[in-house]
Design a protein that fits this description.
two-stranded antiparallel ribbon; 2 helices
């Protein structure tokens, strides 16, 4: 079965994340079959389920499966970048003109 790079990358990352949680999940991804038609593949990913992604030569126009890749990244167990506090860039200077007086009430 063949799919696009973005779907394959998202699927591999999600599979690792689901396995890390000690779980298994059923997912559906778009594929291109041997005869060139677009179909859906149902997979169980996570603990005890291997996913292999390998590059293949592609001829013709590649299908747009970006929506499916985005849906995989929205899975509740897909790894997310942690938010972190950063210091403002002193070269910016944009915050210098703001008066942050929180003691003064505002009117709605």
């Amino acid at each position: 079965m063949k799919t696009t790079d973005d779907v394959a990358a998202s699927l591999v990352e999600l599979t690792a994340a689901v396995a890390k949680e000690g779980q298994a999940e059923a997912v559906s991804i778009p594929i291109v079959t041997e005869d060139g038609t677009v179909a859906q593949a149902e997979l169980v990913i996570g603990v005890g389920n291997d996913v292999l992604s390998a590059p293949v030569d592609w001829t013709g126009e590649e299908p747009d499966f970006s929506r499916a890749a985005a849906e995989l990244t929205q899975h509740r167990l897909f790894p997310r970048t942690q938010l972190r506090a950063v210091e403002p860039d002193e070269r910016d200077g944009a915050d210098e003109s703001i008066d942050w007086d929180f003691d003064t009430p505002t009117q709605a």
